[in-house]
Design brief:
With 279 residues, the protein is of the alpha/beta class. The protein has eleven helices and eight strands.
């Protein structure tokens, strides 16, 4: 994979190349570019698709010890990534974490279209049982280390109160191992994740919602119809704050809509781009 040095450290990223419209896919906590594989494969014939590996637990390169890895800090890294590659008129697609919302009204000049799939928003942070457990573990010395040990055993990771509750389709052992090996084997990766969890305020996304009405460019809110961690009502409330938005629900999907129903998500993204050409 190509790599790029940002202010917080070096990150990997996937880039399909080509001259098509630019789509940037942003993953959530504890994942890497592979969570988007099916979507990337489906979009690449007509789009240039980029997937940065953000430093929120699934990354393979530790960040600098002094890096700001709060939610706002990670959002700034996403903006810096687009700056460094001079990406323009980006369709930014976010899943799970609410990072993209933090760019609205602050660093959104490269975003032509915004797609928010099931993600943290408004007062839903930390989200669900999984989010609350992670947040609590990060505040106990050694808590993150003890918690991630459960991911050594795929049957524990697939429990509804853990990773399994984020997807309707069963998650494969090899996917779980790929996502969580960095946390299991590298204490600096665990440090980065704990820093994100400890430094992100509970009202982070609720305050960011104040900027959403200023985003008058096209927006699509595509929510997992069966999401328990990020309830569809949160998605509907989020869509009402974005002036030029459309709300849809992805059938048969929970939080990880790109794994549960990638075809439906790709269809919605394609339709969204076609219906909203650049000026």
């Amino acid at each position: 994979m190509p790599e790029i040095e940002l202010s917080a450290g070096t990150i990997d990223y996937e880039d399909t190349g080509g001259d098509g419209p630019v789509v940037v896919l942003a993953h959530g906590l504890g994942f890497d570019e592979s969570v988007w594989t099916e979507v990337t494969r489906a979009l690449r014939p007509d789009f240039r698709v980029l997937v940065p590996v953000l430093p929120i637990g699934g990354h393979r390169r530790p960040m600098r010890p002094d890096a700001d890895l709060s939610a706002h800090g990670v959002a700034r890294l996403l903006a810096e990534f687009m700056d460094r590659l001079d990406l323009r008129d980006v369709t930014l697609v976010q899943n799970d974490t609410g990072t993209a919302q933090l760019l609205v009204g602050v660093r959104d000049e490269r975003i032509a279209r915004l797609v928010l799939t099931s993600c943290e928003a408004l007062d839903n942070y930390p989200p669900g049982v999984q989010g609350r457990v992670l947040s609590a573990a990060s505040r106990i010395p050694g808590g993150v280390f003890l918690l991630v040990q459960t991911f050594r055993f795929p049957f524990l990771a697939r429990m509804q109160t853990s990773l399994g509750g984020m997807a309707k389709r069963p998650l494969r052992d090899d996917m779980i191992a790929r996502w969580y090996t960095p946390l299991l084997t590298n204490r600096h990766i665990r440090r980065d994740l704990a820093k994100f969890l400890r430094s992100t305020r509970k009202d982070c996304y609720l305050k960011a919602a104040g900027n959403l009405p200023s985003f008058t460019r096209p927006a699509l809110v595509a929510w997992g119809a069966e999401d328990r961690m990020m309830p569809p009502d949160t998605g509907r409330r989020l869509a009402r704050l974005l002036p030029a938005s459309r709300y849809v629900e992805i059938p048969g999907a929970r939080t990880l809509v790109q794994l549960d129903n990638p075809a439906a998500l790709v269809d919605e993204v394609r339709r969204f781009v076609e219906d909203n050409p650049l000026p």
